[in-house]
Design a protein that fits this description.
By secondary structure, this protein is of the alpha/beta class. Helices cover about 45% and strands about 20% of the residues. It has a single domain (about 5-120), classed as Response regulator (Rossmann fold, 3-Layer(aba) Sandwich). The chain contains five helices and five strands; from the N terminus they run E-H-E-H-E-H-E-H-E-H. The protein is globular. InterPro entries: CheY-like_superfamily, Sig_transdc_resp-reg_receiver. Pfam families: Response_reg. This is CheY-like chemotaxis protein.
């Protein structure tokens, strides 16, 4: 099953690496470079799932996740929070913001794909 995945990532190298791997799996990948774009694109594009970096410019991933999960129009879209700076408490903080799951970078693709499948039924 092809999924529409919104990849929210401001680092071009991380975005390129993960998007190529998702594309090879047959998914459509949309991009947002900051939290404000992520909120806007989630409304306009209606992705099947959002992969949300937490350290973003303009609006961080925690705030973008909160806004999406507090909006009836987008709250059902699953969000997996991603971070390269896994600090104690980041997982709990991401889940409190409304993330449906959490993963660290560098991404273990098999683990991430399992989480995506569990959240989307794909």
């Amino acid at each position: 099953m092809t999924l529409r995945i919104l990849l929210v990532e401001d680092n071009p190298e991380n975005r390129d690496m993960l998007s190529r791997r998702l594309l090879r799996r047959g998914h459509q990948v949309l991009f947002a470079g900051n939290g404000a774009e992520a909120v806007s694109m989630t409304h306009s594009e209606r992705p099947d799932i959002v992969l949300m970096d937490l350290s973003l410019p303009i609006m961080d991933g925690w705030e973008a996740t909160r806004r999406l999960k507090n909006d009836a129009a987008t709250q059902a879209i699953p969000i997996i929070a991603l971070t390269a700076h896994a600090m104690a408490g980041d997982r709990a903080r991401a889940m409190e913001a409304g993330a449906d799951d959490y993963d660290t970078k560098p991404v273990d693709l098999e683990s991430l794909m399992g989480k995506i499948a569990a959240l989307t039924g794909a």
